[in-house]
């Protein structure tokens, strides 16, 4: 029974981990799309500021110095947009330069909840035929089998040992 549970756990974790490369790819595509769209907004803002002889910080300061609360709010929104663009741009570079294991272990570092939620909404499982998908499947199978085996260790049956023809 323990071995059966171990195999079930191993196959379950193997299937789960085998899906990570596909999710990672879909997440990376969405991250790239978000960075592209934010780049357009930030580039337009910088160009508008430059036409007025301002750099980005001077333009944002002008928003902040305004007495109209709507304008001040729009300035704060633009500042948040610029910060998000910079953060996601850095995340995209890190994701693109990471290997398969780095992507798995570093997901928490470059994980954006909004982008991940949208990736999950449209996620479709895929058969892992890439080397990283097969490797993660193997790691999952071994890890799941080992984990379930360890968890069921206290429930194992004890075999009676025979020594020199008699039971102990």
Q: How would you characterize the overall build of this protein?
A:
This protein has 7 helices and 2 strands, in the order αααααααββ. The chain is mainly α and 168 residues long. The protein has a two-stranded antiparallel ribbon with strand order 1-2. The longest helix has 32 residues, at 20-51. It is elongated.
Radius of gyration: 26 Å
pLDDT averaged over residues:
83
Beta content:
under 5%
The helix fraction, in percent, is over 70%
Secondary-structure class? mainly alpha
Low-confidence stretches: none
How is the main sheet built?
Answer: 2 strands, antiparallel
Order of helices and strands: HHHHHHHEE
DSSP strand count: 2
Keywords:
single chain; 168 residues; 7 helices; 2 strands; elongated
Tell me briefly what this model is:
By secondary structure, this protein is mainly alpha-helical.
List the helices and strands and how they pair.
Layout: H1 2-18, H2 20-51, H3 56-65, H4 69-97, H5 100-105, H6 113-121, H7 131-151, E1 162-163, E2 166-167
Antiparallel strand pairs: 1-2
Helix pairs in contact: 1-7, 2-4, 2-6, 3-4
């Amino acid at each position: 029974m323990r071995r059966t549970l171990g195999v079930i756990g191993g196959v379950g974790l193997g299937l789960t981990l085998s899906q990570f490369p596909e999710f990672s790819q879909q997440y990376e595509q969405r991250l790239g799309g978000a960075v592209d769209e934010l780049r357009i907004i930030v580039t337009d803002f910088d160009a508008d500021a430059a036409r007025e002889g301002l750099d980005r910080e001077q333009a944002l300061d002008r928003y902040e110095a305004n007495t109209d609360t709507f304008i001040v709010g729009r300035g704060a929104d633009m500042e948040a947009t610029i910060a998000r663009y910079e953060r996601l741009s850095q995340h995209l570079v890190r994701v693109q330069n990471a290997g398969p294991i780095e992507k798995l272990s570093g997901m928490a570092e470059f994980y954006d909840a909004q982008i991940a939620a949208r990736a999950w909404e449209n996620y479709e499982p895929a058969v892992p035929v890439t080397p990283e998908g097969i490797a993660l499947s193997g790691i999952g199978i071994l890890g799941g089998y080992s984990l379930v085996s360890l968890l069921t260790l206290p429930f194992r049956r004890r075999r009676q040992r025979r020594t020199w023809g008699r039971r102990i």
